[in-house]
Amino acid sequence: MVYTIFCAVLILELVKKDNGSLYEYINIVIKHPKQSDVFLGLVGFRCFTIFKEESALRIVVAPDSFKGSLTSKEAVEAISVGIHRVFPDVEIEKLPLSDGGEGIAEALVQALGGEYYSQTVAGPLGDKIEATWAYLSDGNTAVVELASASGLTLVPKADLNPLAATTYGTGELIKSALDHGCKRLVIGLGGSATNDGAVGIAQALGGKFLNDQGQEIGPGGKALEDLVRIDLSSLDPRIKAIEVLVACDVDNPLCGPTGAAYVYGPQKGADELMVARLDKALFGLAAIVKRDLGIDVLTVPGGGAAGGAGAGACAFLGGTLRSGIDVVLEAARFREKARSADLVITGEGMMDSQTAYGKLPVGVAQAAKEFQIPVIALAGSLQPGVEKVLEKGIDAYFSIVPGITNLDTAMEQAYGLLSDRTEQIMRTIKIGSSLK
User: Fold this and answer.
1) Within a 13 Å sphere around the CA of 92, how many CA atoms are in the beta-carbon half?
2) What pLDDT digit, counting tens, does each position of 140-161 carry?
């Protein structure tokens, strides 16, 4: 009886916040004391929901990296600073993410725990560099980013040359992971300086790619022109004994107008003639893969990712292409952490018409929309066609750049700009919540 009276007092304190259902519960408890335990359970549940409704705002911050200026972890911290300037008591769930390219190792280590290993390997142009891969805390899964050993940022802009650039160093990282006993391998594509169809990776693991003299071809996209035969009999047998997931954020095919060379070659230093040459070489590679390995990679969605590494990783390593966003969201348990949120904030360095097709902000938004959670996206630059993201789950988008400035300055000041823009968005939300 004392418990009943206590709950009645609690109800009277809370009833002014409710629509009347608590009055019904208390009347039932008083009129039917023998069944009070059941109805007190209902009272407790309703009280819990009221307290939840009155609790502090809960925000999930889940951006990609702002390439060239902020890692995804740094972007999370910058956004969090802006939020706390306005809502100091807000609960923030921090989820630095990646769409499957640069940053996927950090995102998975952040989500699941793990450690990094450093290895001296061949860089994109053959010079020795230090690159890293991650071993997750499950003791089975290694994560190798192609960008770590074969990335665009490793080559000075004036020296970019996809005819010469190789993925060999990425293959060396994979070998290191195999040496540590990994049973599952996640390869993150994206941000590559290469266009060799992952031939360099396979060469580092013992695969033979031979010219008409029976000799091993050289490195880079140009060497594919000399390829006449593929022999994988000497490929490290351990690669066939493990699961290989190839995470990518695009669905471009290997060749053609929407393929690796034509879409991504120019940003890797290829001029118009070089693009045509690279594309033809990849066509030749696909034909030899089909003849010698019995695998058709020409039209595989995502095969053109990272200069054809998507297709090559499937053909040479037995990999399975998956959306990098899905891999990361599952590992980070995004849906579990977002389902009770009031708001999700995501973002990336540049948003344009392509963001609506497989990029991380839209992947995050679509997952959030499963729970009807509003989503705001932030970007360093907004380009034509960005409005398409509004049809894919993003409710509003903002540039963090306040006015006319040059790219170098904007990138140098990215952390502060991101915090400042977030603060102003939070102030707008605060004003809106107080309007009657």
Assistant:
1) 22
2) 999 999 999 999 999 999 999 9
Q: Which long-range contacts (CB under 8 A, 24 or more apart) does 76-81 make?
A: 77/415, 78/414, 78/415, 78/416, 78/418, 78/419, 78/422, 79/345, 79/347, 79/378, 79/418, 79/419, 79/422, 81/419, 81/422
Q: Is the domain of 35 the same as that of 63? A: no
For 65, the domain range is: 58-96+334-434
* Token pair belonging to 130: 């230090």
Reference 267, options 34, 15, 38, 68; nearest CA is 68
| 90/57 Cα distance (integer angstroms) | 5
Q: What is the chain's mean pLDDT, rounded?
A: 88
How many domains is the chain partitioned into structurally?
3
The answer to whether 366 and 360 are in contact (CB under 8 A) is no
Separation between Cα atoms, residue 65 and residue 100, nearest integer Å = 11
**Whether 191 contacts 163, CB under 8 Å:** no
- Residue 160 tokens read as 């970019």
Q: How many angstroms separate the CA atoms of 259 and 368, rounded?
A: 31
In angstroms, the Cα distances linking 79 to 86, 156, 358, 411 are 12, 30, 23, 16
pTM comes to: 0.72
CA dihedral 67, 70, 75, 79 (to 10 degrees): -110
